[in-house]
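BUG: 3D viewer hangs when loading the predicted structure for this chain

Environment: internal workstation, default settings.
Expected: structure renders.
Actual: progress bar stalls at 90%.

Input used:
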Amino acid sequence: QEQVTFTGHAIEARLYAEDPNRGFLPQTGVVHVWRAPERAGCRIDHGLLEGATIGPHYDPMVGKLMAHGPTRAAALQRLDSLLADTVLLGVTTNKAFLRAMLRHSVFAEGKADIQFIERAMATEPELTARSPSSQCLALGAALLFARGVTDASDRLTGWQSVEPSPVAFLLRAEETHRVEVTPSGRGTPLELSITTSGSREDGPAERHELTLLSVGVADVTYILDGVRQKAVYALEDGELFLDCPAGALAALDLTREPA
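Structure tokens produced before the viewer hung:
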């Protein structure tokens, strides 16, 4: 045993198909997009394949992500970066929660105990915020508009004597969000002015300026409020899954559903 030495610090995060917003209830779904980056000092153990189904009959853990660094702080930063670039679309996971825990001052300082998560969730509700960010909703609506998922965009074609009118999209994520997309130009890149609002009237609408630079099969590059960003998405049978810097989004497109 005296020949065994310790060098630096290592830490592991376990990616689960579960919803921290609902008491960490296990989740099921189809893996539409799975990306596990390879980088020095990191390791990911998993058995996932795109197209596979995550069912209810096994443990909901879908992967282990590990990072090593010269110090605890370096290992935490490397693991957070690894989590940020790991993408699983098609099922709700605890990825955002894991990243929030890694960046929490109590955990970062190594002072967490077995009641840490319970205390943090009770006093910091933003750790399990249910509502998606307005930035995610804006990007989701822009993708739907650009890919012509709904026929609402047909109203923008043809001659008109006034400025283009807004196209309203309805995205169901916990509650129904109305997202109005107003194109400020024609052609590429697609420039949009976007206003988002929830189903509750007490919440103020938020406005964003978004320019789609390129839209691939699963990747999108865009400028949101002056900042160039990249995201990964999947559109499957009216379901929109999104992983972007502002967070994650899993929503149903209800734009064409009867009122």
